[in-house]
Specification:
The chain is mostly beta strands. The chain is built from 3 helices and 24 strands.
């Protein structure tokens, strides 16, 4: 039996690791969209969307001017942190404890292990100090459904972002009036006027995009625990994920500048190319046409595969009549496909400690700290100039505090507070953008004061708290077969969140 268990652990730790060797391409490379989920959201602003390449969706300037707004996404002033949060937190979804529901003690008179007389079936999300007993085996399966609706308190179905024009130094000697420094810099931001000469008036134009992101994940987890000794348990958790993501944005161009006949046949510098936006009239780029200033772009993808496998060792340091203390370590292997939001792309190591007390009301506390390596998820992979370099995934402090209660002989109620503190993470917040004012004519003789527009801001290298309440029941159906049902409920707004996360599972001990 032990050889069989060690073989299973070996398969989890060795055979699954090659998943990290998958190629990590650059999103938005030319006109071809990537099939990888990591690129779904960026490419709403890229190939086939609000593109910087020669493909569909280009912004037109005298029928040839390409978009100079995408840099706001690349520089994380748009939706970059959302993509990062999705990748990092999908790789660290919570799962049930791999601890046994029915534990065993050695009966000296019978000279064998028998089920212990513990009054509860143990926690669901939390952990208790006790181990399952030497040469005992625990197997389990659980299913969780995550339908994400918020990120850092912002509604994923209604994210308003503003994309500003990239600075473009004016040319005082240009023969094209549209490229001359703007004669009236009233209201223009310093980045467009410093150092002199000022940018052309067309840098007053900006985009506002209303974004809707639909994201869900189904997590199927297989648990296997083996009691190597009476105090040492070895466990493996193998998650299988099905991830579905789609993104849509409706973008409006605000034309605060006025183009002359040589620069914009319809009096605007920027408009959508009807060749890539079917809703635009082909005559919109002809003199006298109606400029096409609003368009909708979308992208979607889904995938299924093995996630990051977690290996665990737990040793019970102290075992009293009722109380116990254990220490252990979780090792998250980069076995999931990082390019498809199935894994983190790096190893995570989390030492932890557990204190528990066994009674009809059995409290328990678990604390741990996870160190993570570098991953493409937080690196530079968006845009044609991306280096594909990796950056560190935020480390995190993890804790669970709760109790399980013996309701009747076969039924246990479980309650936990499950929390995480992410360090040096990016966090979104709602803000406003005040535009630079609208020019009255091609020379911007007078400027109408700017107005405010909903936008997203980013706090870099900050701490993010994620706190949830776990409520569940465990029912011993027959013998050593235990059925579990649980739900995770939000207690705060940090990170990528679902309103409620249901879990159902079954376990067996032998």
């Amino acid at each position: 039996m032990m050889r069989y268990i060690l073989l299973m652990l070996g398969l989890a730790s060795v055979l699954l690791i090659p998943g990290i060797a998958s190629a990590q391409g650059i999103c938005e490379n030319g006109t071809t969209r990537s099939a990888k989920l990591i690129c779904v959201i960026p490419e709403v602003y890229g190939a086939g969307g609000l593109s910087v390449g020669p493909g569909t969706g280009d912004i037109v300037y005298a029928q040839s001017h390409k978009s100079e707004f995408l840099g706001d996404f690349i520089s994380s002033q748009g939706l970059g942190p959302i993509n990062e949060a999705i990748g990092v937190q999908l790789a660290e979804l919570p799962f049930a404890s791999p601890s046994n529901s029915v534990s065993f003690t050695y009966d000296t008179s019978l000279k064998t292990f028998v089920p212990s007389n513990e009054e509860t079936l143990g926690p669901i999300i939390g952990e208790r100090a006790g181990t399952i007993g030497r040469r005992r085996v625990y197997v389990a399966f659980s299913f969780e459904y995550f339908n994400f609706n918020r990120v850092d308190g912002q509604d994923l179905s209604n994210l308003a972002t503003v994309l500003q024009h990239q600075p473009t130094a004016g040319d005082p000697n240009s023969s094209d009036p549209g490229n001359l420094p703007c004669p009236n810099t009233t209201g223009m931001y310093a980045k467009y006027t410093t150092p002199p000469p000022a940018n052309p008036c067309f840098t007053r134009d900006f985009f506002q995009a209303i974004n809707s992101i639909d994201l869900s994940a189904q997590q199927y987890s297989i648990y296997l625990t083996y009691g190597l000794t009476s105090r040492l348990d070895l466990s493996a958790v193998i998650p299988i994920l099905h991830v579905n993501v789609s993104a849509t944005n409706t973008t409006t161009i605000f034309t605060n500048s006025v183009a002359g006949p040589a620069d914009g046949p319809d009096g605007v510098f920027h408009q959508f190319n009807p060749a890539g936006v079917p809703s635009c009239s082909a005559s919109s780029v002809q003199p006298g046409g109606v400029p096409c200033l609003k368009a909708t772009f979308s992208n979607s993808g889904k995938t299924t595969g093995i996630g990051d496998v977690v290996l665990r060792g737990k040793y019970e340091l102290y075992k009293g009549e009722k109380a116990g203390f254990a220490a252990g370590v979780n090792v998250r292997l980069p076995s999931g496909d990082v390019d498809n939001f199935l894994g983190s792309g790096t190893t995570g190591v989390e030492p932890f400690g557990v204190i528990s007390y066994s009674a009809r009301v059995s409290p328990h506390v678990e604390v741990g700290y996870e160190w993570n390596g570098k991953s493409i998820l937080t690196g530079d992979y968006v845009g044609g100039n991306a280096t594909n370099s990796k950056a560190s995934i935020p480390n995190r402090f993890v804790y669970t505090v709760g109790a399980d209660v013996g309701i009747v002989k076969r039924v246990t109620g479980a309650f936990d507070i499950y929390g995480q503190r992410l360090f040096s993470a990016s966090q979104l917040f709602a803000t406003t953008y005040t535009d630079q004012g609208k020019c009255s004519d091609t020379n911007c003789t007078t400027v109408t004061p700017g107005t405010s527009h909903a936008d997203l801001g980013v706090r870099a290298n900050t701490g993010v708290n994620i706190t949830e309440a776990s409520l569940g029941l465990k029912f011993r159906l027959a013998g050593k077969l235990v059925i579990s049902a649980n739900v995770l409920l939000n207690l705060d707004n940090g990170g990528l969140r679902a309103r409620a996360v249901p879990l159902v599972g079954a376990s067996y001990s032998f």
